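Worked example (supplementary).
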Amino acid sequence: MTVHIRGQSAVAGRSAGGPLDPLRTLIQAVPVPTAPLTFPSREAALGLALMDLSFRLDHVPRLSEHLTLMDRGHMSREISVDVDLDLISGRLRDTLLVPGEGTSLWVPVSRYSRRDLAPAVIRDSRGEVVPRLSHRDANRVTAAAFVKLLAMLINAHDDVATPASPIHQLRHTHQRSRWLIEAAITELVMVGAPAGQRLHTPLDHAELPEPVGTSGSVRKLALLGLDALFPAEGGHRLLMPFARLLQLATRQYILVAQLGLDRPRRFLSWEAPLLPAQHRPAPLQSLAKNVLPVNREFVVEYETEIPRAVKAYHLTLEVRQEISVRRFVMSSDVDEEFVEVLAEDLESVARRADRLGTHHKLLELEMQSIASRLAELGRRRLVDLAGYESYLARLPIPVGAPGGEQRRMTAEEVIAALSAGDCSLDVLAAFCAHYATDSMQHLARSGLAGPALLNIAAGLRAAQVGRDVTTDSDPREHGGHAHWRRPSADLSPQSTEPVRVVAFMALADEAPALIESITRMVAGLFLVVLGIGTLLSGGVAWLYSWRVAGGFVPAQADAVVAVLLLVPGLLLARLDLPGTKSVLGQLHRFQRALAAASVVVTTALAIVVGTVESDRTMTRFFQAALAVLMVILLCCLCEFYARRIHRSSAVPRSARVPRWLRDARRSTRRTVEPDDFFDARGEM
Amino acid sequence: MTSSANSTKSSELARIAAEAAGTYFSSVQFTLTHGPLPMTTLGAEPDKEDPNSWPTDFCHFSAAGLSVSTSIWPSAMSAFSGRVQIGPDELAEQPDTYAYSGYAVPNPGFLNQSTRKVEVLITLGTAHWSPTYRETLMQALIIEKLTGLAAERGSPVLHLHTPVAPVPLSVRSQRGDGSSERLRDAIGPCLRFSIGVDPQMSAARLDFETELAALAEEYGFGLKIDDQRLHRVRGEWFTIRGFDRERHRQARGRLFPEAPVHTPRRAVIASIVGPSRTGTTAATVAALRARGIGVLAASISSMRKTTFINLILPVAADAPGTSGAWTGSWLDALPWLSSVAGGTDDRSAAADGSIADWKVAVSPVMRCTYPPSSQQTGATTTGRVPYPIWLWWQLPHRTVDTPALLAEVQAAMEPHTRRCEIAYAQSRLCRGDVVRGRAKLIVMLSQEHRDHAAVQRLLTDATEAAQLRIREWIPTVGGVDPSKVRLRLSPRERWLTYADISA
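After joint prediction of all chains, the assembly is encoded as:
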């Protein structure tokens, strides 16, 4: 199960698992040092520079990921990046110089989870292996960076010159407490603290009295100092930024490559550690997919984070040639922060509408600012929707446009719809058009200013308008390629929050599909049984009449048995049935069962022919076999019908596809869990 | 605070720390120059051989015939007591110019990159800029109130500047692109002020704006807020309240009944320097006002996490006013300023302790002058109106020094103007090793025209010619790749944004 740390850390109060809890635990647990830890200032500077660059990665203008679905449950990834060393500022470059040679830099190229321990071998465009900084060294410089950062924060604190304050004591008089914090940070960075787990320390095994003596007071002051430095409320609001830095440092590794300054623009690629699937759907759901004629698809979802500075991101997918990529859609949350800020603005204005109303122009400014942002969102998502529609139209089996006539709304209708919290794309697009034609100039006096804004905020969040959609551009059937570009005008320009990208892939068995062969086979067997029965009874009356005709038992039973055994055997041998572990095996599971069932029927009939000598029993068995084959044939036809439904489905039934897209296509069916979910965000 | 801002703030913290903890640097060094206009050397020429001697940030400001310049660059100096240190006046190479140098420890906890900027234009009068003592006190009170409002919400003051160019009232018939707008006056009794607000805390921003509007109503000043609509640029304003002359006059008279109503003839420049924090400007101005000292002109900005509060303070007509340059701590500076500027050395008005560790440089008393005229005083009848010209540039770091660039801009404007001075300039080192800057020039055209359209044409021609000349000059000096140079001069502030396309 994926652990979403970001959501947790946002709400985590200090009582229920504060953001610095692992550090506090270690302050209690590590031995109190008697001498300072010494890190060369060079290492600290290098660590800070690596940390800074690895968060932003603004020297990586392009990022590509090539995914290969190995089998059900494992995905291999090849990552390639374009690195431009000229984008690293001069002062950071001085810090990153590899000591001794002065012609190359240590450059962070990626971050990944500490759980992925497979080695990453980085190669450049010539295929040569690029030297890397070892994990141990990377951890060491990161620890040095934190120790330096702590010292800088203490030195810049307001209380550093106030005697008897914890900060002053940490800095000047009670150094052991500071060394203890430093030792705890170093330990934390070196050992790591996986998400979702409590740190396990020796303290868990001992019943300790109240802390007394020197060690107790040193630890107490260290904790007090931490509180003073990172107050939970007010102050410099440093707690969350620092805690987040520490959290990432303890959960992720930085992948650092040594790159020569002689070629500032480089292309690097490496095999990322194999990605295991995160969770399986509920057993009942899997069972239903496997025993009902639903022509199942195999749905894979992939989630990753890309740095906001990346200008282009390519995601390619490759599967076995026998499998078709029926849908490949990517969605990123690039405008999510913008929408969140807009929603909070809407709520704040709604709550203050009365106070703002006394300054009419101020309210108008706010309303205009909100309107301009709503209009921009409408415009952007409409472009996305147009891209998605053209994707549906160019599919091998195109999906038609939604039925019904396009609604055209007047300004009053738009305002009424928005006030009711309807933030569907129709309404937003109409709003955009009216805003652009200056019909929204006096909003402070309209019905929009007031509680209606709360509805709009809720509507925006529910419709997930902050998420865009990118579609497949690969003409091949067994591959997919989505090309995401950073919008030309970034709506949250100051943000360095990584962009979360989710890809939805529906894999299916398309024509020439196994189900077609199986249907032919079952139909063939049906005809064989029908033929033999008709010939033996001398007419077709046995098919509909309950009466038993004489001479149904064949004179030469061996020949009939041979036909009933050989024909299905030969037909079955012609089918290429895959192994059960593979994705194809999953797709064919039910169809394989159909084939097997039809063979079982004919084999059973062969046994009957060889052993039974009563006309009545023989007739009944032939009738029963024909009925069962008929049912199997019907199942095959159901599969065709289900495939038709899947093919004509306009929007994937996934919770990770933005709501506005599902609404735009009036998709009311409930969402389903994917068969495999891969999380490459590296925060596990 | 939601989680989404965390990563942004974390990476900002990492960036500040990484920059502050460079291999060789642990503090910043700055120089500060006070003097009368025209200042020929705005800053020291950097040593071109030593890449670390190039200033990363530069700020210049002039008003009432006096000017202040500040340069700042990283320094290896780490051992000095306190958070900021300033040396006595010793660097000046020219008479009447006073230069100081100092060091400061940056404050990595001052996170303001990820904040949303709210810019405000306050109108304190519609007449010609020559404030009286009473008006300087009123101005000080308003600065104190404004910065106090920001401080209450923990919002840092990103920038405060007065006097600035007033914005003419917009007329409905305008085309909207600014081409038919009335030309702005170069300076007027106006104040520009911007604060940073966390975009996630819109409640704080709305409260700030509401209280600002209430203040405007109380004191009768005009209030414009930057147009927050998407795709609107700097220099586009949204009027919240017009200037209420009568109410403002009454408020001034009620609050400062005893202050003289004539214009100060002498002034001192005080530069107050310290680590960036919120609430410092309000504390500074409040302490001065408590001693009866107003503010004639001000320029406040933060560079490298160090705040420079540059104030031009009026000197009372009866003050002795014969003192040399002075440097020292803030607490010692208050009695000194009181004695120099003729304020009351009121011991009971205790100084706020929040800036006790800040340092101050005070220039000697100097004569101040006021620009000749402006449109509103009827100067259009002679045509001798000073007009503002805005400049925006982006150059690779360590190629052309900002003072040299400004001097070249003045030289390039010379053929078209009879007077050209730099009212305000600021440049800073940005991501990607580029220096970005903005400046406002005050020019008086050599051809006198009363016709608005003719003046507009002249200004446009002059700026385009100058722009071409500077763009040709830069590669010859700094050896810069011309494709990396972006520079634009424009008589309209909001047209500067198009520099990216046109350059």
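Two points are worth noting when inspecting this output. Residues 360-393 of chain A form the longest helix (34 residues). Chain A touches chain B through 76 residues (CB under 8 Å).
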